[in-house]
Amino acid sequence: MTGLTPLHEALRIVLDSASPLGLEKVSILDALGRVLGEDVIAERHNPPWDNSAMDGFAVRSEDIAQDHAISKPVTLTVIEDVPAGKMPTQTVGKGQAIRIMTGAPIPKGADTVVKVEDTEHTPASVRVFKPEPRGANIRPQGEDVKQGDCIIPTGTRIRSGEAGMLAILAKSFVLVYQRPRVAILSTGDELADLDERFSEEKIINSNSYGIAAAVQEAGGVPILLGIARDTPAALKEKISHGLNADILVLSGGVSMGDYDFTKAVFRDLGAEMNFWKLAIRPGQPLAFGKIQGKLAFGLPGNPVSSMVTFEQLVRPAMLKLSGASGFGRPMLQAEFQEKFSKRNDRRHFLRGVLWREGGVFKVRTTGDQGSGILTSLVKANCLIDIPVDVERINPGDPVTVQMLSGSVWLEQAAQAPTTGHRPSCC
Fold first, then answer.
1. Three-state SS for 212?
2. Would you say residue 280 lies in a domain?
3. Which one, of 120, 54, 128, lies nearest residue 96 by Cα?
4. DSSP string spanning 215-278?
5. Is 198 in the same domain as 292?
6. Which of 275, 292, 321 is the last residue of a domain?
7. Tell me: the pLDDT tens digits for 170-194?
8. pTM of the model
9. Assign residue 420 a region: left if phi > 0, alpha if psi is -120 to 50, beta otherwise?
10. SS3 for 127?
């Protein structure tokens, strides 16, 4: 565990240490964003019968097949009205039609629906001015879903579309993977929480709340443990309270200072540690291992470092625990718009603003990239991933961008930023 662990190796270790949690049964209204833990099989066709795609008249195609002009329309006898929600009782015979509404079942004998706007009609008859081919304006049985098919497989994250399909399939409850419970602890005598009185030498504990929001965004359940003071006893007590969760996330106390006791306390609790330092910036001081079988992360105390390392390691671990099949954010290539240089010993994650201009994605940094400048992340809709061995990037060079903005990232990126201000796409 000496030296710096490359991020790709650290991610492999973390994911190898994580296994999906158990299953629970929830209603479809509580399933949004959850990962399905069962194959959803269709118990019947959808639509369950051939039905009309238009308001119009169900007819036999052979009765309206001949060429005809507006002056010589085909006249058919209307024998029944079938609104949506009612089954037809009559069979369409030669020279007959049934008035039908969108979604209503196709009556026997009919094989075509003529749109109402192509007719003139009375309650007893209809004149058809336009021929239609056999099967026109009919949605066939099973067009959407066929009985016995697997419609939504295990491992699918449930979105609004999947929720609607579950309703079509009459699945009011489904099995989903449990959400990971993440215990969050900040460390340091210099911290004050939001609801306590504090003096000028204190700083607000922002990390716990930023991490808690990230946990919720990733589908987990945050458990706030508060602040551990800078003594081994206080840290050990707080950590012990978090070991009933699935993941323990500490913020601060993993550096080499005189009051950084995390390593010693982890050791006292029987932790099996895998690494203590990452070859990335921001976020070099980062600990990972297991304590009593629970995943334990020690993130850096600087706010940006804490959030960036959460994105790279804690979030993927959460997604694996929650049954997801993929663990990364959307990635794309963009043209860098600035000059940047670094040493070739660490992978850098610059906070960036991505936009699309002339069909090309472009990206720039959000400004000062200090690890304590949280506004650099507030202004960002992406992270610019600069590999370890790259020392210099010039304007126009291609870079890899890791999106941060969830499902709306592409729409947000389509807007160009406003110089000197927080862009509207963030």
1. helix
2. yes
3. 128
4. HHHTT-EEEEEEEE-SSHHHHHHHHHHTTTSSEEEEES--SSSTT--HHHHHHHTT-EEEEEEB
5. yes
6. 321
7. 999 999 999 999 999 998 888 888 8
8. 0.83
9. left
10. strand
